[in-house]
Design brief:
With 118 residues, this protein is α+β, with helices and mostly antiparallel strands. Helices cover 42% and strands 12% of the residues. Bound molecules: zinc ion (ZN). Zinc ion binds next to helix 3.
């Protein structure tokens, strides 16, 4: 996956997810965006250290969402869990999506870029 151009902090207090899970996956998600173009790499560099991932119990069946530079993830991935091999969500995929929002992209732009990755 390459290396992350930036360092991120995390204030996660996970139950299902561990700090190591979140930190590693966030680095992979950042590497994905950095590989999409220099504008994303530059934006990530500006955001270095200010992106925080919070893990908690989200209401409304949400798996995750981005609020400014804070990414909130549901502890249990809205009941599906975080094991993609067992019907759950892929943490890196979700963080790529939410980090796209942090970078100011909407769903159409994110989906288009993700579609290219396949
Ligand atoms: Zn979204």
């Amino acid at each position: 996956m390459g290396t992350s151009p930036t360092a991120f902090s995390t204030s996660a207090t996970p139950v299902t997810l561990t700090d190591d899970d979140v930190t590693g996956a966030l680095a992979e998600a950042a590497a994905f965006w950095a590989a999409q173009g220099p504008q994303y790499g530059a934006a990530l560099t500006r955001l270095a250290g200010s992106v925080v991932v919070d893990v908690g119990d989200l209401v409304g069946g949400l798996v995750g969402y981005a609020d400014g530079t804070v990414i909130r993830l549901d502890t249990a991935a809205a009941g599906r869990g975080w094991d993609p091999g067992n019907g759950g969500y892929d943490l890196v995929d979700v963080l790529v999506h939410e980090l796209g929002h942090v970078l100011g992209l909407d769903h159409r732009q994110i989906d288009r870029l993700l579609g290219r990755q396949v």
